[in-house]
Amino acid sequence: MAQNYFITGASGFIAQGLIPALLQNPEARIFAYVHHDKPDFPEVQDKLHYVYSIQDVRSILMQLGESKIHTVVHLAGAGIADWPWTPKRKEELKNSRWDLVTRLHQSFSDAEIVIDRIFGASAIGFYGDGGDYWLDESAQQGRGFAAELCAGIERRIASAAQEADAKWYALRFGVVLGPDGGLLSRLALPAKLGLGSVFGDGQQWVSWIDRHDLVQAILFVEEHDLESGPLNITSPEPEQWGSFMQHLSGVYDKKTRIRIPSLALSALGEMKSVFLDSARVTPKALKDAGFSFSVPELDTSLKMNLIEH
């Protein structure tokens, strides 16, 4: 029997890694939730279905004589650092995450579609500014809008799972590194030109994750049926921002020469926390469960994603 996946944010950077990996499984059937434009994946007969509503999912399942989505993966959400956090933008960020989860899972319930497990994209922004302290999944919610946003998605994922009698996992993603998108797409050209920048004193911790390991972590959690709860999806070897930029510039045999003082970011208001907050995160739950990282070192990830692609 096929394993049915429903994925939101199917056009996004993380889904670009996850969906091809799932398609390698002969038992996987994917319902990719899209709004307008279809993502650039080959449509595989009986394997990949682009859907615009839960009713579309229900119709396909009925044709197949099925009524279950084994795994829901929520990756949708407006870009947190794309625009300043005006009151209007904050509402957009909340609605694209909070309201989407609530609305879709009510539709699943109305359509009488059974769900086994729910993954939801949260982020290490949950912890706020943690300074130099190591942060595992037991650490408390931090302060600020990013922490509020993450906590809100986690509450809604847990609530949806409780109503569906399903397992749930809040994926607290670190900075995701991969080819053709994400943070590296913004930082690579300045670094290549010798214009890499350090924000503040450069001592704030950057907890990152290679997209390959992120995808493998999701598959690992599903395969090993871990207990419900939050999961830090980060490399076990975070870097401070100054060191991160040195590694990135070093890929191009350049140096990081530009320092942007904290005061210069004041115009961003609350959004400056994206650049200045420190999150020294450890993926304790994954390590305790025996997950093995393929790309734990920053240099390896940068070279793979910037040179080999």
Explain this structure to me?
The longest helix is centred in the N-terminal third of the chain and has 24 residues, at 87-110. The strands form five sheets. The protein has a seven-stranded parallel β-sheet with strand order 3-2-1-4-5-7-12, with helices on both faces. It has a two-stranded parallel sheet with strand order 6-15. A two-stranded parallel sheet has the order 8-11. Strand 4 (68-74), helix 3 (87-110) and strand 5 form a beta-alpha-beta unit. The two termini are 36 Å apart. The chain has helices at 15-23, 54-64, 87-110, 145-164, 182-192, 211-224, 241-251, 273-276, 284-289, 298-306; strands spanning 3-8, 28-33, 48-51, 68-74, 114-123, 134-135, 167-173, 175-177, 197-199, 205-206, 208-210, 229-233, 239-240, 258-260, 280-281. The mean pLDDT is 94. It has a domain at 3-175 and 209-234: 3-Layer(aba) Sandwich (Rossmann fold), CATH 3.40.50. It is an alpha/beta fold and 309 residues long. It is globular and about 60 Å long. The protein has ten helices and 15 strands.
